[in-house]
Amino acid sequence: MSTQASSSKASPAYFSPDNDDFDDAELYDSDDNKFDDWVEEEENKPCLSLFGPEKMFESLEAALEDTKKNTGVDLGALCSMLELDFYDRMRLVNFLRKQRPTPDVVAGLTGREPFFSDDAYLIPAIEDDPLLHMPQDDAWSDDDDTVPKPASAAAPSSSQSIDPSRELRRANRAIRSLQQQLSQARQDLVDYKGIVNKTLGVSDVKQWVEMKTGGEGGREDPQYFDAYEDVADDANLEI
């Protein structure tokens, strides 16, 4: 699906999953190798429910699991089925937050709805919404694991020996592939925030809200959320 903002970028050569000569020490010494903590931090942020009465969950995973259990909507599976790219996912999340459609409407999405081509839905409906950091299911898969194996090769027999060096190379490729995917995801988020900031004409959404509310109040203040409602209007956008 085409978008006005492209998320494709050339990855550094040392992230290549096929480069077996890559120095693992360099991988683990780089700042990007702290991605485990980064992912855990994002996934453990409180997350607002998607449907029905507003309810705050302790984490993104809890919110998605509750949505799947009680409404039958698997948001990750839906994004994969519709083959949504990064920006389409952002539009979908902000559409859900802004319009609050029913589960039946969401389950019936085809990917051809007008909001998927409307950049107004790139503007966050909720500041730092954990749903905007929702991982892509296909981003964490290893190509080696997606190739079907014959039943006879599913598990080695006791008489077959496992080549440790081959398994190590495969594990290293998987690690580098995950690292590459995370690096791209983090860059996508930076680009996304840049698009929003450029559209609003301020350094960040939070600054804009503080300007509208006089820096007073908080999430419990209705004026706080009213300010977000005015973001698109001040940017001459229609949501």
TrEMBL record:
Assigned GO CC terms: cytoplasm
EC main group: transferase
Superkingdom: Eukaryota
InterPro entries for the chain: ANM3-like_C2H2_Zf (IPR049482), ZNF277 (IPR040048), Znf_C2H2_sf (IPR036236)
Record region (Disordered): 1-23, 133-166
Polar residues composition-biased segments: 1-10
Coiled coil feature spans: 168-195
Compartments it resides in: Cytoplasm
MF-aspect GO terms: metal ion binding; protein-arginine omega-N asymmetric methyltransferase activity
Domain Protein arginine N-methyltransferase 3-like C2H2 zinc finger as annotated: residue spans: 79-124
Keywords of the record: Coiled coil, Cytoplasm, Metal-binding, Zinc
EC annotation from Swiss-Prot or TrEMBL: 2.1.1.319
Main location: cytoplasm
Cleavable signal peptide: none
Keyword Coiled coil on entry: yes
PANTHER family hit by this protein: ZINC FINGER PROTEIN 277
Name of the protein this chain belongs to: type I protein arginine methyltransferase
Organism from which the protein derives: Calocera cornea HHB12733
